[in-house]
Specification:
alpha+beta; four-stranded antiparallel β-sheet; 4 strands
C-alpha cells in the first residue's frame, strides 16, 4: 500500500497543476498504460498528459499465471519526482 504522506503530496501536486482526476485514477491509468506497452520484466517509462501537465511513470510489468502485475517505481509531475514503489495491477 502506498504511503499516505506520498499520496497527500501527490494530491497537492495535482491541485497545483490543475489535474482534475483523482490520484488513484491516474495511477491506475498509468499502470494500465504500462501493461498495454507489453514490455515484461524490465523497467520502462512513458509519458501521459493530464490536461496540460505531462506525467512520466517508470515501472515494470511481470506476468504471473497469465495475469500482468504492474509495479510503479516512481512518477514525475513537472519537475517534481515521487517514489511510489507499489503494485497497481
Amino acid at each position: 500500500m502506498m504511503n499516505d504522506e506520498i499520496y497527500e503530496e501527490l494530491e497537492i501536486e495535482f491541485e497545483r497543476h490543475r489535474i482534475d482526476e483523482d490520484v488513484e485514477e491516474v495511477l491506475l491509468d498509468l499502470a494500465e498504460a504500462l501493461a498495454d506497452h507489453g514490455v515484461m520484466d524490465q523497467e520502462v517509462s512513458l509519458v501521459q498528459a493530464y490536461g496540460k501537465t505531462p506525467i512520466t511513470v517508470w515501472g515494470r510489468c511481470e506476468e504471473e499465471d497469465e495475469e500482468v502485475n504492474v509495479f510503479i517505481n516512481r512518477i514525475s509531475i513537472g519537475k517534481k519526482k515521487f517514489v511510489i514503489e507499489d503494485y497497481f495491477l
